[in-house]
Design a protein that fits this description.
This protein has 153 residues and is mainly α. The chain contains 7 helices and no strands. It is globular.
Amino acid sequence: MSGINEAAVKPTIELLIHEIETRANKADEHVIAAALRLRELMILRTTALCGAAYEWGVHVAAFGAKAGWRPEELSRTVHGGPGWSEEEALVVRLAESLHRSADVDDELWAALAARFGADQLIELVMLAGLYHAVSFMVNATRVAHEPEAPRFP
């Protein structure tokens, strides 16, 4: 890619992501309402749908153990498929709907609203939007894969 120096872009991306994650990790429970596993599921499915292997891999490396991911679950975050809990399946459907149409139909929203609070839904939608932007940046600037981060299965 001409015109963009990866060495200059990568630290900026990392700094922005670090700032967002630091704020999230320091926030009170009522501010960051969705559980870590559900937050990471939204991030992993979103980055996988966007083909952002770099961001998917660094999230698995940083949060995979805390979220308790099993290998088959990580594969499903990339390739899709059944096997999620009811809450997790709703998060996956939300990620896929937002990726596909930048919208959520009334039926899905009603199912989400029956299971999650408004603060959790806002957070999940915002995470999808944020990680679309992050995915666009790491893909467009061809950020190199981190050696310690896993690749898409």
